[in-house]
Design the sequence.
């Protein structure tokens, strides 16, 4: 039975006979704090405590002997994972940290959108979203500002045209939307810019290569877009840079395609990117390849593979170099840059060889300083085509698509997006790593 206290009062059970309890005057505590039971209860408590101690001792001995039966010859705690001696496995002590809890749902389901964090807001841009007047999900021009403190949502100035599966970047109070597909599913080359403070959109320019599902990031005011698919759904490796400073009152901004020496090392659509300290990271995605072992006309899935590879681009040198791959390959996931030189990815699409559109729960965090990916607390609800925002120590995951089109009569993927939002408290933790030798034959025979 619960005991209730008035605001500001603290329980002060100074002795076992409950002399203090009357003054709280709400629910009387029953059981061992009652006057009549004082002595008997002392005995019961003693017996219970002894029992707990004995059980704890037995469990403790058992656990110790279990650990000993794993012949771990050596374990080391270090702050730099690259110093692991040969033969040791590296384990981050931050593995599995985090806790996702529900936040206010979006008004309507939304997938294939971009989410941009700005002050305490998340801007939900375009995507495939439910249109109440049409009673179905459509490619959308809608822009919603989601207040992470109050859960309030406001419709902002819409995109000039409906877009989904575009690349986006944020720079100097502007949001850039590059390429993507329109409401006829045609691949586009348009570049739009949204002035956050003025709440207005401008047609900024045109890409040299129309591309959908590309990834984008901004460094030093310049906006980079790379990868994606062409109109035939062949993945691209080319890189373009759009310079907003080249726009004049009479001419749009110039987008330049960089030479082949600046191409991604791996062509990738459905990729994601962020910039940290002037370096752009292109993460995961899906690569088209000429699979001569299978008939891709019969099943297009055979000619695409999900990537875990990660590449970093230095705009000063114009070349990409590989970084540590993600733990799980994925395409079409949520991404956000976090303070302290980290990247978080959440959800994403995977396949089983014959079917794609399988939504993932997995969340990973990349630590730039240590070039390592660490598994974090998984999403409570699997999703792909989702996106993330980071506000005041919390990571928000917005919408996306659940697993879809895996059964013949299942609803089409573009009509089953989620409107749920989850928030993860971004727990800071010491960057410590345990180096250990994997358990030997003793463990597998146990
Ligand atoms: C909206 O569409 C769903 C199925 O697509 C249908 O079941 C429902 O009756 C429709 N609602 C209205 C108000 O037309
Ligand atoms: C957007 O707002 C800014 C600042 O008020 C203004 O300079 C600009 O002309 C506006 N652009 C459009 C397309 O309305
Ligand atoms: C795929 O490879 C086969 C065999 O090398 C070749 O004949 C075919 O033209 C290739 N297809 C494409 C689309 O590149
Ligand atoms: C590949 O699949 C298509 C469509 O199912 C079929 O028409 C074609 O004959 C197949 N090609 C081969 C080489 O089996
Ligand atoms: C992949 O999943 C689908 C849907 O569950 C199933 O029908 C198919 O047989 C699976 N393919 C393989 C290779 O397991």
Sequence:
């Amino acid at each position: 039975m619960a005991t209730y206290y008035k605001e500001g009062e603290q329980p002060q059970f100074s002795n076992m006979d409950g002399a203090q309890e009357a003054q709280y005057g709400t629910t009387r505590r029953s059981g061992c704090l009652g006057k009549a039971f004082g002595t008997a209860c002392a005995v019961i408590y003693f017996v219970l405590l002894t029992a707990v101690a004995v059980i704890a001792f037995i469990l403790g001995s058992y656990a110790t002997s279990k650990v000993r039966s794993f012949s771990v010859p050596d374990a080391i705690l270090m702050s730099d994972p690259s110093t692991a001696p040969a033969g040791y496995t590296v384990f981050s002590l931050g593995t599995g940290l985090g806790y996702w809890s529900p936040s206010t749902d979006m008004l309507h389901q939304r997938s294939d959108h971009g989410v941009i964090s700005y002050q305490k807001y998340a801007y939900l841009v375009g995507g495939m979203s439910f249109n109440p007047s049409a009673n179905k999900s459509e490619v959308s021009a809608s822009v919603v500002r989601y207040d992470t403190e109050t859960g309030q949502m406001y419709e902002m100035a819409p995109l000039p045209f409906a877009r989904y599966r575009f690349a986006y970047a944020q720079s100097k109070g502007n949001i850039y939307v590059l390429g993507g597909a329109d409401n006829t599913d045609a691949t586009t080359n348009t570049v739009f810019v949204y002035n956050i403070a003025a709440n207005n959109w401008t047609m900024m320019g045109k890409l040299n290569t129309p591309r959908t599902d590309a990834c984008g990031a901004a460094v030093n005011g310049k906006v980079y877009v790379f990868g994606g698919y062409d109109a035939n759904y062949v993945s691209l490796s080319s890189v373009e840079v759009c310079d907003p400073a080249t726009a004049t009152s009479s001419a749009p901004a110039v987008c330049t395609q960089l030479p082949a020496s600046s191409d991604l090392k791996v062509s990738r659509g459905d990729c994601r990117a962020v910039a940290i300290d002037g370096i752009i990271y292109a993460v995961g995605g899906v690569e088209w390849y000429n699979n001569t072992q299978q008939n891709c006309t019969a099943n297009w899935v055979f000619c695409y593979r999900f990537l875990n590879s990660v590449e970093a681009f230095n705009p000063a040198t114009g070349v990409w170099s590989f970084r540590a791959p993600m733990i799980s390959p994925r395409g079409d996931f949520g991404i956000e840059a976090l303070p302290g030189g980290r990247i978080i990815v959440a959800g994403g699409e995977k396949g089983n060889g014959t079917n794609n559109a399988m939504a993932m729960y997995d969340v990973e965090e990349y630590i730039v300083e240590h070039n390592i990916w660490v598994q974090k607390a998984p999403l409570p609800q699997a999703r792909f085509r989702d996106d993330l925002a980071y506000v005041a120590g919390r990571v928000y995951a917005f919408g996306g698509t659940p697993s879809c089109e895996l059964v013949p009569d299942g609803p089409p993927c573009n009509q089953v997006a989620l409107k749920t939002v989850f928030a993860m408290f971004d727990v800071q933790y010491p960057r410590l790593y345990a180096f250990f030798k994997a358990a030997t034959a003793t463990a597998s025979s146990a």
